[in-house]
Structure formats: C-alpha cells, structure tokens
Design goal:
This protein is α+β, with helices and mostly antiparallel strands and about 140 residues long. It is about 20% helix and about 30% strand.
C-alpha cells in the first residue's frame, strides 16, 4: 500500500464509516480516514512521520451514468456503480487518502518557502555559483 501511495512507509491506516442506502438504491458514505505515514520532505529529502485525519463524504454512484467526467482521462471509462453489497470501503478510503496527502510534503523543520541561505551574507551556495558561471548571471556578473 505504501508503494501505491508513493510513501516510504505506511505505519497505520484505519477508516470509520457509515454507509446509508436510499430508497432509490443510492449509496452514501460518510467516513473518517486516519493514517500514520512517513513522508519525504521535498526540501531536505529527509523522511518524517505525519498523522493524517481526513473526513469525507462520497456517493459512489454519482458518475455511473453514460457520461464521463471532464477530469477522467479518455479510455479509462467511468467507475462502476457499486451497490451497498459491492462497495469497497478500503479502496474508497485509500483513494481519499491519496487525494488528501500534500503532494509537496515539507518537514516541520524545513526552511520556509522562498528562504535562501545564500542571500544572507556574502557566500553563495556551490550550486548557485556554478549556475551563475554557466549562465553569466549572479552577483558580480
């Protein structure tokens, strides 16, 4: 599961859900997903643990008619319409968890966005110096 979600590790995953079936056969799910995951910081590349709590409400049959939603890639079709017996709560929870995870996770101790140490003082990072040399820009260029 961790590999599917692009995580170094998935320590725990649980879902509490209520499923209601309407008189017309429609299905409505109200749920809370809780997970302890290990993420990799996009700034420092350090792994860190994060607790995630995601409430969600879903009506799995919403896209079940003959139309395809605009954001569904061509050729993937539409999701099947599950009835209450065919509903896969685990799969629904994992899908909502994957959508709820920050695509650019940051370690709590990572420098704030836009903060560059090399701007504070007279020294430039090695990368900035090499880049300036290649492009003919930078301080003193």
């Amino acid at each position: 599961m961790a590999e599917r979600l692009g995580l170094p590790r998935l320590h725990s995953l649980s879902v509490d859900a209520e499923v209601a079936v309407g008189s017309d056969g429609s299905v409505k799910v109200e749920a809370m997903v809780r997970a302890r995951v290990v993420r990799t910081c996009v700034v420092t590349l350090e792994d860190f643990e994060e607790s995630v709590v995601l409430p969600f409400t879903a009506s799995p049959g919403e896209l079940a008619d003959d139309t395809v939603a605009a954001d569904v890639p061509v050729g993937t079709g539409t999701p099947e319409t599950p009835d209450a017996e065919g509903l896969q709560l685990g799969e629904l929870a994992i899908q909502h968890l994957s959508l709820g995870l920050d695509p650019y996770p940051r370690h709590p101790d990572a420098p704030s966005p836009g903060h560059a140490d090399w701007l504070e003082g007279d020294t430039e990072s090695e990368f900035v110096a090499k880049l300036a040399g290649l492009t003919g820009t930078g301080r003193g260029a």
